[in-house]
Amino acid sequence: MPHSSSRSRALLVAPIVVGGLLAVAGAVGAVASLLPYPGDGWWRLAQAMAWVELALALALIPVLVLIKIRRQKRNQKERARRRALEEAVSAEDHATALSHARQWPEEFLEVTQEAVVSLRGMARDQFWQLVTESGPSRS
Asked: Is there a contact between 88 and 100 (Cβ–Cβ < 8 Å)?
């Protein structure tokens, strides 16, 4: 059974797709009415469709470029946050690490999880002993 959010998303997507198809069909009809009539109505509709597709492609290119730039900037910020967290955790700078943990809790959990996974042998045992002794499970 699909998740409720995917079901509501599907209900939202269908009208958008139908609306988009109707908009393209309307644009093709409008452009076809502006083209000179060569005698074959299908040929005029094919030309109109080509012009509408060209206009859509030219309109979407700048939008896609802007989305790409925005995503790259967001990824750079995420990498910088992650790097700051990794440096604070590896330098045992507890005050900075806690400050970053409050600012970016999800990234902090990812970094600390990777740090714990990389621990081996005695260091891992000491870590888990410290967690057990200092954690909320201790009464």
From this structure: yes
100 Cβ contact partners less than 8 Å away, ≥ 6 residues apart: 81, 84, 85, 88, 107, 108
Range of the domain at 80: 4-134
Whether the Cβ atoms of residue 108 and residue 101 lie closer than 8 Å to each other: yes
What 8-state DSSP symbol labels residue 138?
Answer: -
Residue 94 counted as domain residue: yes
Residues 6+ apart with CB under 8 A from 55: 27
CA dihedral 107, 110, 112, 113 (to 10 degrees): 170
Side-chain-side CA neighbours of 60 within 13 Å: the count stands at 6
**66 or 8: which leads in pLDDT:** 66
Give the whole-angstrom CA distance, residue 46 versus residue 123. 70
2-16, pLDDT tens digit by residue?
456 777 787 888 899
What whole-number distance in Å separates Cα of residue 31 and Cα of residue 85? 56
In a domain, 115, yes or no: yes
